[in-house]
Amino acid sequence: MSMMENDVWKLGIVEAIEPVGEGSRVCIDAADILSPAEGLLVGDTGYGYVYTLSENRTTSTYPARVFRINAGAVHQYIFEEEKTRYLAEIEHDEPVTVYEGTASRQVPVGRVKIEKRELVRIKVRAGEVNLSATLQWADSVYLMTDQYEPMALKDCRPGDRIYCRIDEPGRHLGQAIQEEIEER
Fold first, then answer.
1. Alpha-carbon distance 122 to 132, whole Å?
2. How much is the pLDDT for 175?
3. CA 27, CA 44: separation in Å to the nearest integer?
4. pLDDT at 47 over 60
5. Which of 41, 62, 60, 61 is nearest to 135 (CA)?
6. In whole angstroms, what is the distance from residue 97 CA to residue 74 CA?
7. For residue 46, what are the domain limits?
8. Separation between Cα atoms, residue 144 and residue 130, nearest integer Å
């Protein structure tokens, strides 16, 4: 499957990857098998979200976990079909929306695992929009490149192009509202 840019799905250019220290990160363990191209849309603000993929590949330090997405820091938004939640709000008895390109489906959550880990902030420019995500600095965290190929976050460098979804900030309890807001 490939992806094209449109009004909301964009190829963002990685501008920086900066250490932020140790923090609480969330792994979402689905009660279903995820494809290597399935993932979540997560971000630090309502300006946009980084397409973060499942742990559906073996790395030098981790076996493949075909049910898991290492989604990043607890404070982040998870974008789900026009609404958002905080990663910290995800519970094991409710579904989440996973994406495979522009297609989406609901998967049940079997477990939410929160642990202290080293985190980095990846800053991305998508058109006129600056967005970021705070992710675990681990070789199990993968992003989707402009060639629609998974790339380990640890291999990502400024100038790389990754898929993301832009949005407009301004939400109350996850629902879009019209208001003047600035997020940084």
1. 5
2. 53
3. 16
4. yes
5. 41
6. 17
7. 9-168
8. 18
As a whole number of angstroms, the distance between CA 71 and CA 64 comes to: 16
Q: Taking all residues of the chain, what is their mean pLDDT, rounded to a whole number? A: 91
Structural domain count of the chain: 1
> What is the tens place of the pLDDT at every residue in 171-182?
544 555 556 666
DSSP string, 27-68: EEEESSPPPTTEEEEEEEETTEEEEEE-B-S--SS---BTTE
Residue 179: inside a domain: no
Q: How many residues does the chain have?
A: 184
Q: Which two tokens stand for residue 108?
A: 């049940």
User: Do the beta carbons of residue 126 and residue 11 sit within 8 Å?
Assistant: yes
| SS3 state at 87 | helix
In a domain, 3, yes or no: no
Token pair, residue 155, equals 């291999």
Give the contacts of 173 (CB within 8 A, at least 6 positions apart): none
48 in a structural domain: yes
Integer Rg of the chain from CA:
15
Mean pLDDT of 66-81: 96
Q: Is 88 helix (H, G, I), strand (E, B) or coil?
A: helix
pLDDT digits (tens, 9 = 90+) for 100-138: 988 999 999 999 999 999 999 999 999 899 999 999 999
Count, in order, helices (H) and strands (E) of the chain. Answer: 0, 14
DSSP conformation class of 145: B
